[in-house]
Write a structure and sequence with these properties.
The chain is an alpha/beta fold and 239 residues long. Helix content is 35%, strand content 25%. α1 links the parallel β1 and β2.
Length: 239
């Protein structure tokens, strides 16, 4: 008689894709429980959860998770912060590396770029608001950099590596380990955006006990090193 455990199924943001790949592999090895996450764009993920696609676990930006909890699509009683993810910038390997040590220097780098890449997620909205504050808009006129939004599920780093954009902004975790780019480091604190990604059990959940055990693992001190290695940190304040 087989005693193999049923695999847990989850959906998550692209931001946590590399981290979850590492943690689910380790969890399966150590605990004998398979967890399979599909990582997609946050808008698509939330729509699929709302449409009733069956999942055991959901891991998305905290504001999205809050709305899903209010709608009864995830179990609010299990909602917990998993990682904090900050933003960074990158240029193509071999390109002139601009100074990004201050807000002014980043603004100058943006103005000197022919095209700027940004994402569909929270970081993309933040960058658009910041560019507007600096007077840089898609219809800004001659001499203003072209703004290029990466398609859902496509990392901004790939636009930078291909030369489609000169300067790209996204969460550090999504720019790490992208071939063909040079990281410029985290954005200056005056324009930094740190996004919390939280997780919860879906409503309904097939195996509540197993899903809760994995959720506890995601927020345990044992996985902090993996979060840091993937450009993120654990959430300091729990709720």
């Amino acid at each position: 008689m087989s005693t193999e455990r049923q695999a847990l199924k989850g959906i998550a943001s692209m931001v946590t894709r590399s981290l979850l790949a590492r943690l689910t592999e380790q969890y399966a090895r150590d605990m004998g429980q398979s967890v399979v996450f599909e990582s997609v764009g946050g808008v698509d993920a939330a729509k699929r959860v709302r449409d009733g696609e069956p999942f055991d676990l959901v891991l998305l930006a905290a504001d999205v998770m809050e709305r899903l909890a209010s709608e009864g699509k995830v179990d609010r009683g299990t909602l917990v912060g998993v990682v904090d993810s900050s933003m960074a910038a990158a240029v193509k390997t071999g390109a002139l590396v601009p100074d990004v040590g201050s807000e002014e220097s980043i603004r100058n780098a943006v103005r000197n770029a022919g095209a700027i890449g940004y994402s569909t997620g929270p970081s993309g909205g933040h960058i658009l608001r910041q560019l507007e504050k600096w007077g840089i808009t898609p219809d800004g006129g001659e001499g203003v950099p072209r703004l290029v939004q990466a398609r859902p599920g496509i990392p901004v780093g790939s636009l930078v590596a291909s030369g489609e954009v000169d300067l790209g902004f996204q969460q550090l975790s999504e720019l790490l380990n992208v071939e063909g780019i040079t990281l410029l480091g985290p954005l200056h604190e005056s324009i930094q955006l740190t996004t919390t990604f939280s997780a919860a059990l879906a409503s309904p959940v097939r195996d509540r006990q197993a899903a809760q055990a994995f959720l506890a693992y995601l927020t345990s001190p044992a996985v902090e090193a993996a979060k840091v290695a993937n450009g993120m940190t654990g959430v300091r304040a729990r709720w």
